[in-house]
Automatic annotation (TrEMBL), chain A:
It comes from the Bacteria. PROSITE patterns: GST_CTER, GST_NTER. The lineage of its organism: Bacteria, Pseudomonadati, Pseudomonadota, Alphaproteobacteria, Hyphomicrobiales. This is Glutathione S-transferase. It comes from Devosia pacifica. Residues 1-82 form the GST N-terminal domain.
Automatic annotation (TrEMBL), chain B:
Keywords: Oxidoreductase. Residues 100-273 form the Vanillate O-demethylase oxygenase-like C-terminal catalytic domain. Coiled coil: none annotated. This is (2Fe-2S)-binding protein. It holds the Pfam family VanA_C. The keyword Transport does not apply. Signal peptide: none annotated. GO terms for molecular function: oxidoreductase activity. SUPFAM superfamilies: Bet v1-like. The keyword S-adenosyl-L-methionine does not apply.
Length: 215, 289
């Protein structure tokens, strides 16, 4: 049985939940009192993850931290289509690595600003918001040019990959970080495409897609 | 800067969860745009305005939270159930939200959004109807009371086994606090208590402090917190997208469909008490004209 150590309001925890829902995997949830309990800094939890961070996934005795690493593991092991993390395509794997890194930069900016505003983390909120806008500008351009070339997703294939899952949560939650998306139309369209992936699921703060508008 | 009227100022206002303030570490927050510092010292809590560190403010620890006042506070409202021996009392979280306190209270009172915002938990289509209920305002007790509120809920609490018709009572015993009582899935003779205490950081920003006092000897505190945070996390983007962020007290300002019976009573009560902070008053302020 797969076990996810999870906090409902965490976008990083939402990444594995989202992929497991899309892949139709069943798993067990261990709720962790991240806030206000700070249970992820408790002695017991630090034994599981010395970094004191969520999420953590345990499968077959293997203990994994870092949401991107977890996505790679789940897709490589359980995705029968081989599309979410295409092991036989070095160029795509490298592209995915770039966007997994980008996802961590979003965590360091958009997610940090959200934690500062809603859970009073000691962060420079304005700097974090400015950093998020810089990333969103890059992301919007990448997606906008992609649409011109007939590419709907972050990486080259004609289907989504773990890169899209990794970048989705904190972009979708950016309003809570005080980072509005009205200047990023291509991002808004991409968010809607992710929401229409079969098996998509929401978290608190993320809404399902509205009705599709025919072009 | 808009200052709260004396009625509002002479209340206790929540400023932190008990456990957020550790000894030896000053805790900084903001109340009515005034930065304040809370310290846990050997002889108890000390709360001061950051700009007047020598003058202590009144302080009270109650319901798992720390309360203070910039005025002369009248007694804090009672939640007698809180002291029942078998209740599981917990701070379900203190979350910053970009909204006015009265908007957050009004959302807390509104059952109409359950099926759409808390789908498959506190409501589900086609059970969307808000049935007739009773509202009374007691000006001398300083409280709005809504009773006989009923709603079908697929999963009313952590302890629910399935859907049920749930009965609610809502109290608004403080301009910025509300307490609800709902049927308890594990004991039909008692009610679970959930409260929201809004700390007015500014007119358009609050900390929503959430209390749960539940009859449930099975679930863990973590599970019960998670349930409430899941719900509130769904409300948060709705609250933050309210426009205007301040609550209009003019009955003609918003359509009566949104402002239902308890909301109308709440707005009228705020008006009567001259509440002027986090609202758009009926009579425009001189400064706004
Ligand atoms: N690179 C990690 C970052 C994980 C991370 O930052 N997790 C947050 C929760 S969303 C956390 O646990 N932070 C610890 C803390 O902020 O106290 C990942 O993607 O999983
Ligand atoms: Fe709600």
């Amino acid at each position: 049985m797969i076990t996810l150590y999870d906090f409902e309001l965490s976008g990083n925890c939402y990444k594995p939940r989202l992929l497991m829902s899309i892949l139709g995997l069943t798993y067990e949830t261990v709720p962790v009192d991240f806030y206000p309990g700070r249970e992820h800094k408790s002695e017991a939890f630090l034994k599981l993850n010395p970094f004191g961070e969520l999420p953590v996934l345990v499968d077959d005795g293997l203990v994994l931290r870092d949401s991107q690493a977890i996505l790679i593991y789940l897709a490589s092991k359980y995705d029968k289509t081989g599309q979410w993390y295409p092991l036989s395509d070095p160029a795509v794997l490298a592209e995915i690595a770039i966007w997994h890194d980008f996802a961590n930069r979003i965590t360091a900016t958009a997610s940090a600003a959200r934690l500062g505003l809603s859970m009073f983390y000691d962060v420079d909120i304005e700097a974090a918001q400015a950093g998020a806008h810089q990333l969103f500008r890059l992301l919007d351009e990448h997606l906008w040019f992609g649409e011109r070339e007939g590419r709907d997703w972050l990486c080259a294939p004609s289907h989504p990959t773990t890169a899209d899952i990794a970048c989705f949560p904190y972009v979708a939650l950016s309003e809570e970080a005080g980072v509005p998306r009205q200047d990023y139309p291509a991002i808004r369209r991409w968010l809607d495409r992710v929401k229409r992936i079969p098996g998509f699921t929401v978290m608190s703060g993320v809404f399902p897609a509205g009705p599709a508008i025919e072009a | 800067m808009n200052r709260p009227n004396p009625y509002l100022n002479d209340h206790w206002h929540v400023v932190a969860g008990n456990e957020a303030v550790a000894s030896g570490q000053p805790f900084r927050t903001v109340l009515f745009d005034v930065p304040i510092i809370i310290q846990r010292l050997a002889d108890g809590l000390r709360v001061t305005a950051a700009l007047a560190p020598e003058k202590p403010l009144p302080v009270l620890e109650r319901y798992g939270f720390i309360w203070t006042s910039l005025g002369t506070p009248m007694p804090l409202f009672e939640i007698p159930e809180y002291d029942e021996a078998d209740r599981r009392n917990m701070n379900a979280g203190s979350l910053g939200v970009a909204v006015s306190a009265p908007r957050a209270i009004e959302n807390f009172l509104d059952m109409g959004h359950f099926p759409y915002v808390h789908t498959d938990i506190l409501g589900a289509e086609p059970h969307t109807e808000v049935k007739e209920y009773d509202v009374e305002v007691s000006a001398e007790r300083g409280e709005v009371l809504a009773t006989r509120c009923r709603f079908f809920q697929p999963r009313a609490a952590t302890s629910s086994a399935g859907g049920q018709e749930v009965e609610y009572v809502y109290r608004v015993p403080h301009p910025y606090c509300s307490v609800l009582y709902k049927s308890c899935p594990s004991d039909e003779n008692r009610r679970d208590v959930i409260a929201i205490f809004c700390q007015p950081v500014g007119e358009e920003r609050i900390v929503a402090h959430m209390l749960q006092s539940l009859i449930d000897d099975v679930s863990t505190i973590t599970d019960m917190r998670r349930f409430q945070q899941t719900i509130f996390g769904q409300d948060k983007p709705i609250l933050e997208n309210q426009y205007p962020k301040k609550l209009p007290l003019d009955p003609r300002a918003e359509t009566p469909i949104r402002a239902d019976k308890s909301a109308i009573a709440y707005r009228r009560w705020l008006s009567q008490m001259g509440v002027n902070y986090g609202v758009i008053p009926l009579v425009p302020r001189v400064a706004d004209v």
